[in-house]
Amino acid sequence: MYCFCLYLTRFDCAKKTFKNERFLGMYRGSAVNLLLITPEKAIKLVVNDYLRYKFTDKKTGVLSSGGAIVSGAGAGLCQIIVTTPMELLKIQQQDAGRSGAAKSERITATGTALKLIREKGIVGIYKGFRATALRDVTFSAIYFPLFAIFNERLISADVTGLAKGENQPVFIYSLCAGIAAGAIASLSVNPVDVVKTRLQTLKKAEGELSYSGIADCFTKVYTKEGWRAFFKGGFCRILVIAPLFGIAQGVYFLGIGEHIVGFFSKK
Asked: Where are its TM segments located (predicted)?
């Protein structure tokens, strides 16, 4: 949850949120995440693997740097069908308790989605999809090649002795590689994430700027707040994204999906 002008620091934001909304206020928007985060990550990981396979030279078994970047970018592009509505609804939930926003009615993800669909059709829940695509395509183009490099280096070094072969996945190596790559990629795209979040905030506080698009938002944020504004929430984002991708990548590399498919295919 991004701290706008109402909050001085991430700690001030957390303190005021807890004071005004108590413990549950810290978990606004979690229901949307619980429902949609799994299919979102599944799409991202599977599409990246598929594209990496397609771009790998069948004679040499080598995937070029360009192929790795394009594979990651393609995975990021495919996931926005789930990510855009998930982020839009989550942001409205998280922003609902902010002072200056409307308090007359209880805001729910379902209510927000139905209202947007009634007023603007299905495209209503895809507000900010261009900014979301820009963020996720860039993130994935950075993250997946970095993860592959870090993971390969860790397996080659094998300081724990857990790797039994070059292609043998090791949970702890995948976890560490995912955390490192996730931290770098998330901070790299933080400026775009700030812009996306502001574009997707439907209810504006008094005196808060409105934006007509990505370029307009970038210009106004830079003019009014300077370049530092583009890295607001960067530390909090790393705290969430790095372990999230580390765990997801570690579990994915254990081959749980393949075991489940194999179990049911035998029946």
From this structure: none
Does residue 162 contact residue 176 with C-beta atoms inside 8 Å? no
Please name the residue that has the structure tokens 């190596």. 173
Q: Write down the pTM of the prediction.
A: 0.83
CATH node for 10-265: 1.50.40.10
- Buried b / exposed e over 52-80, threshold 16 CB at 10 Å, is beebbeeeeeebeeebbbbbbbbbbbbbb
The per-residue pLDDT for 105 is: 57
Question: CA 209 to CA 30: how far, in whole Å?
Answer: 27
Contact 132, 84 (CB under 8 A): yes
**Domain ranges across the chain:** 10-265
Quote the CA–CA distance of 161 and 152 in Å, as a whole number: 14
Q: Which of 199, 78, 93 lies closest to 140, judged by CA? A: 78
Q: What is the CA radius of gyration of the chain?
A: 20
Q: Where are the alpha helices (DSSP H) in the chain?
A: 10-25, 30-55, 65-95, 109-120, 129-157, 171-188, 190-200, 214-225, 234-252, 256-265
Q: Are 199 and 130 in contact (CB under 8 A)?
A: no
What is the tens place of the pLDDT at every residue in 56-114?
998 998 999 999 999 999 999 999 999 999 998 888 877 766 644 445 456 677 888 88
Instruction: Dump pLDDT digits (tens) for 214-230.
Output: 999 999 999 999 999 99
Residue listed under structure tokens 């901070």: 187
Classified as helix, coil or strand, 1 is: coil
Residue found under tokens 């397609």: 54
